[in-house]
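in:
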């Protein structure tokens, strides 16, 4: 099976590629894995170093909005797993244009190419943020979309396009929507690597608002296992939730990270809340559990301890990224 992974040099996409090629997830028997990635600020070739010598891996630097490049790369693949996106909510508040361009137009460009080439399956990787915010209970896959940030609105647009290509053209599209991920190789603007690397550097960490926002934290490997199950056995035209980590308020998460880094609350600086900040996300994962046998395997205590250790031991990976001007210090 020849698999094209867009955004495969990013945080989650690179975990998927490493998993596919090292055989540490569901067996999908890839004969070739092509990564198409623009290498924006959050894309990093070094994320693929552990599998760089695998002869099945081919890397193409290119933009998913570039129809010519996309057409050339899509040809000959059996499956597309589409991760490439602008992914940081705070950046979308400061400027929505790249989000609409990459997440909506880029996805449409890929869908068109997949349609032309008769690609066997299109796996569209999306997020729980498309549903907005929920005070109690959990969303099922039928829940109406009600995104609140430019990021989530652009992801919702791409989800709807993907479903439209299934309904209109009969394309084999499956969509995954996942909760918040953490783990190694995450760009240090997202809350967990930002906090951990700030604390390891002896600095402070910015906590939004009252710290009461709730997120479900899932290890990136569990996310990728879920995507692989959906790629393998998901039903065409269906949406599958991937989650089932641990729900924590941002204050509880901060406490865990302070403990893991041996720091106290004197290192926490309260900052004004994010505009339009969703209060709580929560996914019902019954569908993927019952249909595809998915269950997360890494509990948060173990996952966070391993993640903090990884950032402690891989300063050479994150230090140059933090030194770059592109990190938003209050993300
Ligand atoms: N991080 C999370 O917690 C989370 C949760 C649920 C879903 N998701 C979704 O998973 C996907 C991957 O997220 P991530 O956290 O790995 O993001 P990331 O920002 O770490 O990686 C995105 C990758 O896409 C590439 N890219 C961006 N624009 C591109 C373009 N125009 N053409 C080609 N490549 C481009 C970047 O270079 C980078 O390698 C996204 O679609 C995101 O919406 C993320």
């Amino acid at each position: 099976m020849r698999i094209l992974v867009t955004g495969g040099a990013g945080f989650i996409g690179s975990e998927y590629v490493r998993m596919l090629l090292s055989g540490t997830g569901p067996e999908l028997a890839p004969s070739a894995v092509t990564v198409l990635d623009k290498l924006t600020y959050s894309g990093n070739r070094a994320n693929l170093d552990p599998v760089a010598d695998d002869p099945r891996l081919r890397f193409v630097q290119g933009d998913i909005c570039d129809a010519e490049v996309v057409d050339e790369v899509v040809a000959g693949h059996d499956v597309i797993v589409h991760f490439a996106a602008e992914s940081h909510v705070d950046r979308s508040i400061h400027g929505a244009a790249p989000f609409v361009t990459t997440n909506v137009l880029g996805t449409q460009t890929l869908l068109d190419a997949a349609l032309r080439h008769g690609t066997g399956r299109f796996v569209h990787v999306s997020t729980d943020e498309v549903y907005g915010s929920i005070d109690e209970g959990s969303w099922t896959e039928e829940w109406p979309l009600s995104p609140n940030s430019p990021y989530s609105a652009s992801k919702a647009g791409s989800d709807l396009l993907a479903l439209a290509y299934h309904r209109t053209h009969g394309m084999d599209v499956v969509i995954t929507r996942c909760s918040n991920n953490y783990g190694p190789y995450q760009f240090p603007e997202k809350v967990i690597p930002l906090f951990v690397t700030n604390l390891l550097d002896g600095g402070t960490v910015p906590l939004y608002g009252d710290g009461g926002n709730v997120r479900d934290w899932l290890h990136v490997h569990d996310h990728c296992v879920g995507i692989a199950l959906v790629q393998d056995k998901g039903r065409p035209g269906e949406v599958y939730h991937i989650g089932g980590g641990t729900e924590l308020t941002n204050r509880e998460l901060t406490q865990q990270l302070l403990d893991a880094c041996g720091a106290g609350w004197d290192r926490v600086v309260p900052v004004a809340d994010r505009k339009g900040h969703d209060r709580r996300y929560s996914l019902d994962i019954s569908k993927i559990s019952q249909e595809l046998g998915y269950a997360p395997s890494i509990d948060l205590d173990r996952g966070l301890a391993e993640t903090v250790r990884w950032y402690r031991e891989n300063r050479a990976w994150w230090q140059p990224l933090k030194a770059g001007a592109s990190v938003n210090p209050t993300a």
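note: The first helix runs from residue 11 to 22.
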